[in-house]
């Protein structure tokens, strides 16, 4: 993940996890997504189908553990959504 995106992540409001990301997508609040590279693809099927025809950018983070730590939670995180 680039330094520019890391800096932007720190400035934006965000939600962590699949359930919260789906809620934010349903409310059209997501500006971009950060997905852990080691997440199982089948877990993301609902998210990927929702963003299929949108222009929401997707970035990848090295692992679920690292993304969870970076998001400030004590557990692994598969996905983080940056909000409007």
Task: Provide an overview of this structure.
This protein has 84 residues and is of the alpha+beta class. The chain has a single domain, classed as Ribosomal protein L30/S12 (60s Ribosomal Protein L30, Chain: A, 2-Layer Sandwich), CATH 3.30.1330.30. It is 37% helix and 23% strand. It contains four helices and four strands, in the order αβαβαβαβ. It has helices at residues 3-11, 18-26, 45-50, 64-70; strands spanning 14-16, 30-36, 58-61, 79-83. It has a four-stranded mixed β-sheet with strand order 1-4-2-3. The two termini are 20 Å apart. The model has no long low-confidence stretch (mean pLDDT 88). It comes from Staphylococcus carnosus. This is Ribosomal protein L7Ae. InterPro entries: Ribosomal_eL30-like_sf (IPR029064), Ribosomal_eL8/eL30/eS12/Gad45 (IPR004038). Residues 13-81 form the Ribosomal protein eL8/eL30/eS12/Gadd45 domain. Keywords: Ribonucleoprotein, Ribosomal protein.
Give structural attributes:
globular, 4-stranded mixed β-sheet, 4 helices, Ribosomal_eL30-like_sf, 84 residues
Which homologous superfamily in CATH is the superfamily?
Answer: Ribosomal protein L30/S12
- Determine the N-to-C terminus distance: 20 Å
Mean pLDDT: 88
The helix count comes to: 4
The shape, in one word, is: globular
Order of helices and strands: HEHEHEHE
User: Going across the major beta sheet, what is the strand order?
Assistant: 1-4-2-3
**Topology-level CATH name:** 60s Ribosomal Protein L30, Chain: A
Largest sheet: 4 strands, mixed
Strand content: 15-25%
Low-confidence regions: none
Secondary-structure content class: alpha+beta
Number of domains: 1
Q: Please tally the β strands and state the result.
A: 4
Helix content: 25-40%
Radius of gyration in whole Å, from Cα? Answer: 12 Å
For the record, the CATH class is Alpha Beta
CATH architecture: 2-Layer Sandwich
